[in-house]
C-alpha cells in the first residue's frame, strides 16, 4: 500500500516503487532506500521500499532478512526475498514476526505486469486487516488453513510503473501463522474466477510491509 492502499504504500493495502535490478548483491545492507537487489543468476531477489520508516539487513546466500520499524503514521516500509519473476510455486518460509500493535503484513507479495495487478497472500498481520473495505470474494482453503479473499481497485496510485490504476487481490489467512508453505497456485486459481491472470509475472517475494506503529521481523525463505 503506499499510503494509498497497499504494499508499497499502504494504508489500505499495498503498492510500490518500480524495482531497479543490480547484477549482483555485494553488500549486506542496501545503500539506497528504493533499491531492489538481485542475487547470482537472478534466483534470489530482494525487494525494498522504504519511506523513512525503518531499517533492514539481508543475507542472500542464506535466504534471510531482518527488519524493524518504528513510526507513527504516514510512512511505509516493504522488504522481501524471493524471485525476480513470479510463478505458481510453493513457497516455504519461517519467520519471527512482532507487529501486534502496528499496521503491518507478513505475506507473499507480487505483481502482474499486464493487466497490471498487485497481489498478497497474507499469512499474518498486525492491527489492520487488509480486506477491510474491499470487495469480498469468499474463502479459499489452502495449506491447512482458510483464507478470506477480497479484491479492490487502486486509482491513480503509485505502482511498479509509476502512477497508474490497478487491481489488488488479497487472500488473508483466518488463523494467523508465521511459518509454513504457501501454495500460490491455489490462490491464483481462486482469484481467476474474478479476473486474475496468472501470467506475465513481475517479481514475487515473501515480504513484510509496515505502515505505522512499531515492530520487527526476521524471515527465512526456501
From TrEMBL:
What's the catalysed reaction? Endohydrolysis of (1->4)-beta-D-xylosidic linkages in xylans
Keyword annotations: Carbohydrate metabolism, Glycosidase, Hydrolase, Polysaccharide degradation, Secreted, Signal, Xylan degradation
Please name one Pfam family that this protein belongs to: Glyco_hydro_11
Stretches assigned to the GH11 domain: 32-222
User: Could you tell me the Gene Ontology terms of the biological process aspect for this record?
Assistant: xylan catabolic process
Q: Where in the cell is it found?
A: Secreted
Which top EC class applies here? hydrolase
Q: Where, if anywhere, are coiled coils annotated?
A: none
Q: Which biological pathway?
A: Glycan degradation; xylan degradation
Q: Recorded E.C. number(s)?
A: 3.2.1.8
Where are the catalytic residues?
118 (nucleophile), 209 (proton donor)
Q: Identify the stretch annotated as signal peptide in this record.
A: 1-17
> Record's Gene Ontology CC terms?
extracellular region
Molecular function (GO) terms for this protein are:
endo-1,4-beta-xylanase activity
Superkingdom of source: Eukaryota
**Family per record:** Belongs to the glycosyl hydrolase 11 (cellulase G) family.
This protein's name: Endo-1,4-beta-xylanase
Amino acid at each position: 500500500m503506499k499510503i494509498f492502499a497497499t504494499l508499497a504504500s499502504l494504508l489500505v493495502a499495498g503498492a510500490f516503487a518500480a524495482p531497479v535490478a543490480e547484477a549482483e548483491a555485494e553488500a549486506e545492507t542496501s545503500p539506497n532506500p528504493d533499491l531492489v537487489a538481485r542475487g547470482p543468476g537472478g534466483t534470489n531477489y530482494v525487494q525494498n521500499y522504504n519511506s523513512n520508516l525503518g531499517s533492514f539487513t539481508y543475507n542472500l546466500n542464506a535466504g534471510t532478512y531482518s527488519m524493524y520499524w518504528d513510526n507513527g503514521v504516514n510512512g511505509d516500509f516493504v522488504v522481501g526475498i524471493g524471485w525476480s519473476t513470479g510463478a505458481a510455486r510453493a513457497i516455504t518460509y519461517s519467520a519471527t514476526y512482532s507487529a501486534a500493535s502496528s499496521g503491518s503484513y507478513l505475506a507473499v507479495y507480487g505483481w502482474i505486469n499486464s493487466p497490471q495487478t498487485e497481489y498478497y497472500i497474507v499469512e499474518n498481520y498486525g492491527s489492520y486487516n487488509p480486506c477491510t473495505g474491499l470487495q469480498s470474494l469468499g474463502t479459499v482453503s489452502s495449506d491447512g488453513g482458510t483464507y478470506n479473499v477480497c479484491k479492490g481497485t487502486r486509482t491513480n496510485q503509485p505502482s511498479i510503473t509509476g502512477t497508474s490504476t490497478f487491481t489488488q487481490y488479497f487472500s488473508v489467512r483466518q488463523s494467523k501463522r508465521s511459518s509454513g508453505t504457501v501454495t500460490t497456485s491455489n490462490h491464483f486459481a481462486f482469484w481467476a474466477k474474478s479476473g486474475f491472470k496468472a501470467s506475465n509475472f513481475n517479481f514475487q517475494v515473501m515480504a513484510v510491509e509496515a505502515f505505522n506503529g512499531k515492530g520487527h521481523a526476521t524471515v527465512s525463505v526456501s
